[in-house]
Amino acid sequence: QVQLVESGGGLVQAGGSLRLSCAASGRTFSIYTMGWFRQAPGRVREFVSAITWTGGSTYYAGSVKGRFTISRDNAKITVYLQMNSLNPDDTAVYYCALSRTQQPVAGEEFYDYWGQGTQVTVSS
C-alpha cells in the first residue's frame, strides 16, 4: 500500500503563488507516475499535471500550462506543484495521485492511490 500526503494549500490573492507538495510512503517501489488533480465546488474532478518518476517527463492541462510547474525529488519521494499567477478559477481541492503507468497520463482510471487533498482558495 502507498500513502500520499498533500500539503501547502491555503488562501492567496489573485496573481499570487503557492507550492503544493505530496510525500509518498509505503510501497514506493511501485511509483512510476505521479499526478495532480483538482476538484472545485460543484464541479467534476479534473486533471492538472503529471510527471514520471524515473525520467521526469511532464504533462499539463491546457488551463494551467505556463503557470504551473510540476517537479519531483526522487530521494525524498516527493512531488511538487508550483502554482503561479493564480486566479479564482484555480480554487479547488487539489489531490495527489499515483499511477503504475510509465507515461504522464491524464485519465483518473490510470491512478491507483490518492491523497486526501489540500484546499487552495484564490480570492479576487
List keywords for this structure.
124 residues; mainly beta; four-stranded antiparallel β-sheet
Note down, in words, how this protein is organized:
The protein has 124 residues and is mainly β. The mean pLDDT is 94. The strands form two sheets. Strands 2, 4, 5, 6, 9, 10 and 11 form a seven-stranded mixed beta sheet that branches.
List the helices and strands and how they pair.
Blueprint (H helix, E strand, L loop, with lengths): L1 E6 L2 E4 L4 E9 L6 E7 L6 E7 L5 E3 L7 E6 L4 E6 L8 E8 L11 E4 L3 E6 L1
The computed structural class is mainly beta
What separation lies between the terminal Cα atoms?
A: 40 Å
Shape: globular
List the secondary-structure elements in sequence, H or E. Answer: EEEEEEEEEEE
Range of strand content: over 45%
DSSP helix fraction:
under 10%
What's the gist of this structure?
The chain is an all-beta fold and 124 residues long.
